[in-house]
Amino acid sequence: MTVNEFKQDRSRFKSRKSFLLAAGVVLLSSTSAYSYYESTEKTVEVKINNWEKTIETRADTVAEVVKELKLPVKPKDYLVPSKQTKIKDGMNIEWKPSKQIHLTIEGKKKTVWTTADTVKDFLKEEHLSISKFDKVAPSFNQTLQNHMNVKINKAFPVTLVDGNRKKTVWTASTTVGDFLKQQGITFGKWDKVKPGFDDYLHSNSSVKIVRVKKITDVVEKSKAFAITIQKDSSLMEGERKVLQEGRNGTVINTYESVYENGRLISKKLLEQRTIVEGRNKIIAEGTKKRDGQFAAETASTAGTRGRELLVTATAYTSNCSGCSGITATGINIHSSPNMRIIAVDPGLIPLGSRVYVEGYGYAVAADTGGAIKGNRIDILMPSQSVAAQWGRKQVKVQIID
């Protein structure tokens, strides 16, 4: 090898050595930079509601992580740890967005922000005391949603009178119908409620339930026969003869009885059906004059026709005390309480006379009475109430015939 060739080889060797040295410096610098970058990244666990994500970040604070992830965190949200907290490797960050809830208590409304999960948690968070009688909607276990309406009606006392039982009940119902449904009260067909189902309740209201029963009774009853008087000119005056014996009939009466809270309020006859026909008793009464009697009539009965008398009039019924229900002339007034009959003193008004009584109308003098003497008459009325209304009064009586 010549000297020149040696010098050339040596020069090439130095150039390669310089190149390798430079490459090594560059590689070392890159590795150091990468190691530094790696050492500044931190692993963070981010939890959003029930969603979790692991991220690698070079952020210094929680606020920078929030910004990096573009999370719309609001002041009322739940964020742990706070935005100012420094990021550490392996840190857990939890974010729970708040919800806007429209709360109504006894008609008063307000808007509340909360991160509670359920209605029950929300009420606890708001320090609201709820009794078992209060009404909350939605229910306690309902999951809260953004813009949800939560309504609370506080319970108040109501007096409940059910038939003959009375008690005080706490309720949050606003109407009578809802209150009774809440109490599980059932009704019969005829029961009555006061106030009505749609009426509103308030503190110390009173709800009354009248238990109504309608009972139908079927009663078999004997119907007394009537007595018919027939004038008979073949018989002497004062004589009587039975032409036909009477026989009682049988009827079936159907009554409707109405009871309110166990007390009888009314009883009404719905139907009367005859199952055995009765037969009237027929009596013949003589009208034939005895010798010499006709001439004497002018001084007695004949002289009474057309006369007008002023009398004291009282009233009686077929069921009066001491009454037998059969008149002095044999008329059964139990079976015919609506007949126009008066009791008279036969010495003043002859029995059988047809009369006109002022304020009463036409009638027949067909009865007598122990207290009916002189200018006194007793008028047959269909019921005690009508008799009581008549009372005692002065009236004019005209004898027709």
What features would you describe in this structure?
This protein folds into 5 domains: 42-96, Ubiquitin-like (UB roll) (Roll), CATH 3.10.20.30; 99-153, Ubiquitin-like (UB roll) (Roll), CATH 3.10.20; 156-210; 215-288, Single Sheet (Resuscitation-promoting factor rpfb fold), CATH 2.20.230.10; 303-401, Barwin-like endoglucanases, CATH 2.40.40. Helix content is 17%, strand content 41%. The chain contains 6 helices and 24 strands. The N and C termini lie far apart (192 Å). The strands form 6 sheets. The protein has a 6-stranded mixed barrel. A 4-stranded mixed sheet has the order 2-1-4-3, with no helix packed on it. With 401 residues, it is of the alpha+beta class. The chain has helices at residues 3-40, 62-68, 119-125, 176-182, 293-296, 384-390; strands at 42-48, 51-57, 78-80, 91-96, 99-105, 108-114, 135-137, 149-153, 156-162, 165-171, 192-194, 205-210, 212-223, 227-236, 240-244, 249-260, 263-276, 281-288, 308-316, 341-343, 354-357, 361-367, 376-380, 393-399. Mean pLDDT is 84; it is low at 1-7, 25-38 and 293-304.
